[in-house]
Structure formats: C-alpha cells, structure tokens
Design a protein that fits this description.
Elements (H helix, E strand, L loop, with lengths): L1 H26 L5 H6 L8 H11 L5 H13 L5 E2 L4 E2 H36 L4 H15 L2 H15 L20 H35 L2 H8 L4 H23 L1 H14 L5 H11 L2 H34 L5
Antiparallel strand pairs: 1-2
Length: 324
C-alpha cells in the first residue's frame, strides 16, 4: 500500500509539472488559434468579432489566469472543448485512441515477439553467421526513423505492388461503425509493420546480450554438469532469465512507441490519436493538445511503473531455489 501511494504521489506531481510546462510552451507557439480556425475568411472578420472570439476562448486573459481556469476545470473532470473537432476533448481522445489502440497493441506485440525470437536465435548461435546477420539488421532498424520505414513500406506494398491499402483505417465511404473487421485488419498491416520495426531491433539486441551474459554464469555451468545442454538448456534455464529485461524494455518503451505512432499515422493518414495531435498542433487547439499530452503522460507512466514492478516480481521468482 505504501508503494502504491508513493507511485500515485509521483504521478500527481508529474502531471502537474507536465501540464504547467506544456501550457507555457504552447503560449509561445507562433500559431494563432483564431487565424487557424477561420482560415482565409479572416480578412472578412471585423476586429470586434475577432475580439469576441478571443474572449469566448479565453485568449484575452493573462497566461496564469488561463492556466488556472483550465486546471480548475480539469480537477472537476472537464478537459475542455476542442475547437478543431467541435466536441469535448475527452470524447475526441476516447474516439481517436480507440482507433490507435489496435495499431499500438499490434505493433507492441509484434515487436516483442520478433525481438525476443531474433535475440534468442542470436544468443543461440553466438558469434556465428546468424548472430552477425541479426545484429546487423537490428542495428540498422534501430537507426532508421519511423517515417522512412513507413514510406518505404508504402512505396513497395501499396504503390509498386498494390497488395495493401495506401492509407486510412478503413475503405473510403465507411466509418468506424460500418467498417468490417477484415477491412480494418488490411489497413492495419502496413502501419503495424512500420511501427513494430521501431522497437524490434532494440529488444533483439538486449535479449541477445542478456543470453550471452547468462551463458557465462555459474548456474549454467552447473546445469551443463548435470547433463542439460542444447535447446533444452536454452529453453529451461537461459530464456527464463533473459526474458526479464526484454519484458521490462517492452513496457518502458511505450513512450517511444507512441512517438513513432504519431509519425506512422501521419504517413498512412491513419485517423488515430497521433493524427489528432498533429492537427491540433497545426491549428493551435490548445485544450486538445493539453488533454492528449496528459493522456500520453499517464500511459507512459503506467508503462514505466509496470516495468519496475516486473523487475521486482521476476527477480524474486528467479531467486527461488526451484528457479535454478
């Protein structure tokens, strides 16, 4: 219980600091929300109407006063109203994250499974050609930006060989309520592949290094002396110790995954939370940006907390006598 309250207090402090810092940074943005909202019709808007719009949105108030009003409404459960989508911020985040969740979950699972598998194979054939090939591929994937991988996949499998959709989360003319599951899955393939390659290389390299260090440990020598060897040794002794850092890295990399999703959704015109973030930034929708930043902060904090909890739990299980 004490640990729970400690993490909860850290979360509250983090959210307050992130909210204040984000609000201050957005106040220096060169984007005029009213100009971005009205567009080319700004020339036909008289100064009196411009002032009324600014007063309605609270843009005529000092920075500290605007932040105070926004924060007070947040404490009451009101995240504000999106000027871009003309609906409450909470509704925008809920609808957009429901679309992004399939992309994030698919990429998270695929990168973890492929990364651990490749790291396991590299550790099994340490310093031989499979290990060298996997390491080179992993280093290459770790250095490539997400948008470049996304554009490459798009050019190959949607333009050069048009076997998959070019963009969006469903076919033109459909929406979230009418799109079929098979249709959604087809549109998910390229974004999930692009996003999963972002973290796969790092997980493979971490798993490979952990397997290499475990293979040199005393309990592995003891297991070999008892006749355990080959794939049986790797499966029953090595992998259970090497899987811990891979799992922790997976949960701790949620922030990087969400950053990659922002770029991937832009390339594939995927109507998720990342696309909404970019649109809100370009149009100066401060309430929506603040809500998305706090929501993403909460997810990243949850991932890091789960990662720290897994380290404690898995290390305790490995320290038991029957774990060796």
């Amino acid at each position: 219980m004490k640990l729970f309250f400690s993490h909860f207090l850290r979360l509250i402090i983090l959210l307050v600091l992130v909210a204040a810092g984000t609000f201050i940074l957005l106040s220096f943005s060169p984007v005029d929300p009213i100009r971005a909202y009205i567009g080319n019709d700004l020339l036909h808007v008289p100064p009196e109407q411009y002032a009324r719009i600014a007063a309605r949105w609270g843009l005529d108030q000092p920075l500290w006063e605007r932040f105070g009003h926004w924060f007070w409404r947040l404490l009451q459960g009101d995240m504000g109203y999106s000027m871009l989508f003309n609906m409450p911020v909470a509704n925008v985040i809920r609808e957009r994250f429901a679309t992004s969740f399939a992309l994030l979950a698919g990429a998270w699972l695929l990168s973890g499974v492929l990364g651990v598998t490749l790291g396991f194979l590299a550790g099994r054939f340490l310093y031989r050609w499979p290990d060298k090939m996997i390491c080179r591929i992993s280093y290459l994937l770790s250095s490539l930006p997400t948008f470049w991988i996304a554009m490459l996949l798009l050019a190959l499998f949607a333009v050069r060989w048009p076997v998959l959709p070019v963009c969006c989360a469903w076919d033109p003319g459909n929406n979230a309520g009418t799109a079929l599951l098979s249709e959604r899955l087809r549109h998910l393939v390229l974004p999930v592949c692009a996003l999963s390659l972002l973290g796969m290389g790092q997980i493979a390299l971490h798993t490979r290094e952990k397997i290499a260090s475990v293979m040199k440990s005393e309990f592995i020598r003891f297991a070999r002396a008892q006749g355990d060897k080959g794939w049986s040794l790797l499966r029953h002794q090595v992998l259970r110790h090497a899987i811990t850092p891979a799992l922790c890295l997976q949960f701790a990399s949620l922030g990087e995954l969400m950053g990659g999703a922002l770029l991937a959704e832009k390339v594939f015109a995927y109507p998720g939370l990342g696309q909404a973030t970019i649109d809100a930034g370009l149009r100066g929708d401060v309430p929506l940006l603040m809500g998305i930043v706090l929501f993403c902060t909460l997810l990243v904090f949850a991932g890091n907390t789960i990662s720290a909890w897994l380290v404690v739990v898995l290390n305790r299980s490995l320290e038991r006598p029957d774990a060796l």
